[in-house]
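Structure, all two chains, one model.
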Amino acid sequence: NAGVTQTPKFQVLKTGQSMTLQCAQDMNHEYMSWYRQDPGMGLRLIHYSVGAGITDQGEVPNGYNVSRSTTEDFPLRLLSAAPSQTSVYFCASSYSDSPNQPQHFGDGTRLSIL
Amino acid sequence: AQSVAQPEDQVNVAEGNPLTVKCTYSVSGNPYLFWYVQYPNRGLQFLLKYITGDNLVKGSYGFEAEFNKSQTSFHLKKPSALVSDSALYFCAVRDGERGTYKYIFGTGTRLKVLA
């Protein structure tokens, strides 16, 4: 039982490049989400999904796309990388969208945009 | 709208002393409150949650939290701090109102326990 797995762990991109951050969970969780963590700003929600085929925007969705074709996977796509997207990205999941469910986090992807 | 505030960027405490990390919140419906801990280069780990019932919630590693509805607070406490408790702590809130699906996190409080 691996929990929430994020790949890659580190990535350096040039401005304008695109890439996909991968997130997979093996706990059959319905709710999945992506956050970015920046110094002094805590975690900010980018996108979330309450089940396969259903996604919605969080607090800071601009410049990012998501899809949820399976329960297990929730990839985050950067369309055209900008230096402002330099951050640590965390994927999280919980059993359901019920508000009493805690989230399980991956170990993050550290992304630098040059 | 949901919001959560952690008023202290850093808390320093001597080993063996009690610790408190503060959190206040705002939600429209019933609050569902969580504390998480983050160690360097790791993701957040769940510590405890308040759903309903007793105002004092016990969690992992000897931590507990006190829910105060009138002050809209959910402070994290531990009777005797350990050096290994040094980490970044996040408070989070989820609004129980139907159709609300977002968790909102505070900005985090760095706890330093001094030997």
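Chain B touches chain A at residues 6, 9, 32, 34, 36, 41-46, 49, 51, 90, 94-96, 100-108 (CB under 8 Å).
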